[in-house]
Amino acid sequence: MAKGPTPGHGPLAGVRVVELAGIGPGPFAAMLLADLGADVVRVDRPGGAGLGIDPAHDLTNRNKRSVVLDLKSDEGPARVLDLVERADILVEGYRPGVAERLGVGPDACLARNPKLVYGRMTGWGQDGPLADRAGHDIAYIALTGTLSMIGGPDEPPTVPANLVGDYAGGSLYLVVGVLAALQYARAHGEGQVVDAAIVDGAAHLATMIHGMLAAGSWQDRRGANLLDGGCPFYGTYATSDGGHMAVGPLEGRFYAEFARLLGIADAFPDRWDLARWDELRAAVTERFLTRTRAEWTEVFAGTDACVAPVLSLTEAPHHPHLAARSTFVEHGGRTQPAPAPRFSATPVSVRTGPALPGADTEAVAADWDVPGLRPTPRD
């Protein structure tokens, strides 16, 4: 069912966004803008995206509306420019040069709307030797050195799903960029292009680590450092039932509580004796294997030992803390992460389910005053 503009709430209420349909970080960035209250119109292509899931289950298209336009047709680019004329932000995730060839590149869009913020989401960026090459999250974080930090010392690097590259290094940096550019456009009346490259964002995420490396407090190898699993009191341990516990008591008073509750306080009084870290790790491993995950969760409950059970995706929504905060919500029969962050004066929420391709054409044509979106009646 077509839907009109969602109620004006959220800090971005009144902001209009055009999203040229893609996969991965672009849609997620547009979802975040929509979660924050923006009116996001997704321009879907006929036939859908190449790696897309069933649109009815694609949660990254929640809180949006959809129209279908063929950008390779004579009328498609013109209709996009009609939307651009009325928009504040455009988000696209094509390879460099593709939007230009389709007639909806930055020059064409900014000529139509000089205040537009044109957000470009790519893996390699708009220039450089690899700019025109295909790629995915894993390759981007590989070249930046980020992937090299994740995993055990004697194992290949561990793939962190596509969270570190696509979403942390990509989507979130694009959102920061377009909102910063929107602030500038509103203050100075001048739009601009935001080049959000996953390689740039993924590299930037490791800024603190590079500082530690320069200071000599980080070794350039996996599993040998304080925060990468090399430290025996910052990592994960298996329990007797095949579950896992996450351990992170870095501060002295937290570690003392951890060691007491685990039952190793007398055996290892100096946790900073690196020569005994292997011995300490073995002792921690042995202790955790004596009880189930649930039993250890009970042992550490209500303490500052900085220990938590490792929950699965389906278990997480039922954790008492997350349930109390409504970190996960149910909408349309689907349990999903709630919009984040939270705002005291302009609350955000999941307002609508995933936008189905083309379902909102009539409503968008009316609300954005773009009558050309409506299909031409056939004789």
Average predicted confidence as pLDDT? 94
Distance between the termini: 26 Å
Strand order of the largest sheet: 3-2-1-4-5-6
Beta-strand fraction estimate: 5-15%
Contiguous helical run count: 13
Element-level helix/strand string: EHEEHEHHEHHEHHEEHHHEHEEH
Main sheet makeup: 6 strands, parallel
Q: Which ranges are low-confidence, i.e. pLDDT below 50, for 5 or more consecutive residues?
A: none
Question: Structural class of the secondary elements?
Answer: alpha/beta
Q: Output the radius of gyration.
A: 24 Å
> How many beta-strand runs?
11
Shape: elongated
**What is the percent of helical residues?**
25-40%
Describe this structure in words.
The protein is an alpha/beta fold and 379 residues long. A 6-stranded parallel β-sheet has the order 3-2-1-4-5-6, with helices on both faces. Helix 1 crosses helix 6 and helix 6 crosses helix 7. It is elongated and about 80 Å long. The two termini are 26 Å apart.
Write a short abstract of this structure:
With 379 residues, the protein is of the alpha/beta class.
Notable characteristics:
379 residues, 6-stranded parallel β-sheet, elongated, 3-stranded antiparallel β-sheet, single chain, 11 strands, alpha/beta
SSE inventory with pairings:
Layout: E1 16-20, H1 25-35, E2 39-44, E3 64-68, H2 76-85, E4 89-92, H3 98-102, H4 106-112, E5 117-122, H5 137-143, H6 163-188, E6 192-197, H7 198-205, H8 207-215, E7 235-238, E8 244-247, H9 252-262, H10 277-288, H11 293-300, E9 307-309, H12 320-325, E10 328-331, E11 334-337, H13 361-367
Parallel strand pairs: 1-2, 1-4, 2-3, 4-5, 5-6
Antiparallel strand pairs: 7-8, 8-9, 10-11
Helix pairs in contact: 1-6, 5-6, 5-7, 6-7
